[in-house]
Amino acid sequence: MNNSREIPQELIDSASLELQRFLNTVIGIDFVMLCSSDGFELALASKKNIENKGKIAAVSSSILAMVSAFISEIQLMGCQTITLDAENGKVFLTAINHRNYPMVMVAVTNKDILMGQMLYYYKELGERLAAEPLDVAS
Amino acid sequence: MILQQYKIVFGGTMGAGKSAAIQALSDIPVVTTEAVNTDTAAHHKFLTTVGIDYGEISLDDGTKIGLYGTPGQDRFDFMWSIVCKGAIGTVVLIDHSRIERLKDLDFYLNAFEQYGANVVVGITHLDKEHDQKLKIYRDWMQIHQKKFPLFAVDAREKDDILLMIETLIATLEFQAIPTVQ
Hints:
The complex is a heterodimer.
Chain A: H1 9-25, E1 29-36, E2 41-46, H2 53-73, E3 81-86, E4 89-96, E5 103-109, H3 115-130
Antiparallel strand pairs in A: 1-2, 1-5, 3-4, 4-5
Helix pairs in contact in A: 1-3
Chain B: E1 7-12, H1 18-25, E2 34-36, E3 47-49, E4 53-58, E5 64-69, H2 77-84, E6 89-95, H3 101-113, E7 119-124, H4 135-143, E8 150-152, H5 158-176
Parallel strand pairs in B: 1-5, 1-6, 6-7, 7-8
Antiparallel strand pairs in B: 2-3, 4-5
Helix pairs in contact in B: 1-5
């Protein structure tokens, strides 16, 4: 029996190509990961070996879910992207509002990333991943 | 006795009824952090907690207690230590309908008693299986020298959950009574 909640492999494969393209386009990205909204890693593009991928996916989904609950409590709407600023880098978390498969995307960058470029391409990537069908750029 | 800390944590098996228990008990609308469950092999339910649930109850003396629900899946175990900080006690809920129920009990007791010894255990979904009921859990506790209060509960029933909360509080108050030498 087909599990309609399981994200199709075709979508995951397309997303992998999109993440890789994003990694190659924007200077300063360490890695970008796509996860299911309940915290499973789906696709990853990275410039270095990531050992705790599973935990990163789980933590990302938790953070986004708790921020969404917080946003609701303070009566704001539509939390788009969360940016975390650390001493040695930045993290960007966003919800991918796919009609059938809600997902989470997390990107880790160096501290000197050009924010404008990053946010522009990150938002564009998120919109592409949320669209259905997912068209892979030629 | 003055309660210095006002937090009770709910831990246990995915699908045991942690979120339902807080919903049943809370005096306020519960804050939830649920996502679509894609791990249907672990449990068939549609939504699963990925952050924390938060509710509140008020005791007869006006004291408010925060009720904190945790995700059941062990890939979220990083949440457990964070949420358990400052808790006055933990309710561990175990789903009796799972075949691995005793392994679950062992796992979650090990996971949560390290954060605090004031634990009560609630066994849920007993209506689905009738064999032996609580005896297997009492026997397991005896063998493993554990002495936690054990309850058969329906996580949707406020009175069942309230009994466990009152047990946690009574245990704490009892421990605070100075002993006469």
